[in-house]
Design brief:
alpha/beta, 4-stranded antiparallel β-sheet, 42% helix, elongated, binds calcium ion
Length: 222
């Protein structure tokens, strides 16, 4: 786990300094703040590879902070810390866009193992490029002409699939399978709605390629 930057938000000073010290010893670059507002302010400056978010913050619920990050297009993995271990809490942590969950008190070795797994998953895929456009797995963003647009996980999977074969028509069924990988039943027009959102995002990026409709078949990026 070298060179990765972790941003921690934790208001308990003892817990916070234990995390900072321990993770620095693991060779990570660690920054920490004490409130949700400070986290949202800091994130732009340090572009973290991973977040550790305490759910019980003095100014906000950590899950709302996570949702705010996702709404800003920040896709880096989030591990929640909480003193509560009730099942509804776990579930709502994931629906808020979190990737993992650890209940206090925890063994430090377990935290490290989970962070390693999250970083491995996040960094596993290389960026895909089409012309000037880069589709970045780490930040879940489309970057072109010096401008970046955040993508939701579904938008990211769709764009990465199209970008993997520029100029080729990707069939509708293949796009549905990659975008909704767990066999979710989606309406025929759901795919079109997501493509429309992607097009709007690409339209905001100078010099980005276009997604072209091939009627009755699928879509193509070029
Ligand atoms: Ca707390």
């Amino acid at each position: 786990m070298s060179l990765a930057t972790i941003l921690i938000v934790e208001d308990d000073l003892e817990m916070r300094s234990m995390l900072v010290r321990g993770l620095r010893e693991e060779g990570l670059h660690v920054e920490s703040v004490g409130t949700g507002a400070q986290l949202l302010e800091r994130v732009a400056r340090c572009s973290p590879d991973l977040f550790i978010i305490d759910i019980g913050l003095p100014d906000a619920d950590g899950r709302d902070v996570c949702q705010a990050l996702r709404a800003q297009g920040v896709g880096a993995p989030v591990l929640f810390l909480t003193a509560r271990d009730a099942l509804p809490d776990r579930l709502s942590g994931f629906s808020a866009g979190g990737d993992d969950y650890l209940t206090k008190p925890f063994a430090f070795a377990e935290l490290v193992a989970r962070l390693e797994a999250l970083l491995r998953r996040a960094g596993g895929e290389p960026a895909v490029e089409v012309g000037e456009l880069r589709v970045e797995p780490r930040s879940h963003a489309a970057v072109c002409g010096g401008v970046s647009a955040g993508l939701t996980p579904t938008e990211f999977r769709l764009l990465a699939r199209l970008a993997a074969a520029p100029g080729d028509v990707v069939h509708r069924r293949a796009l549905v399978e990659v975008a909704w990988p767990h066999g979710a039943i989606v309406r025929e027009n759901t795919l079109d709605a997501y493509i429309a959102r992607l097009r709007r995002k690409l339209a905001g990026l100078p010099g980005a390629p276009e997604i072209v409709t091939v009627h009755g078949v699928g879509y193509c990026i070029r």
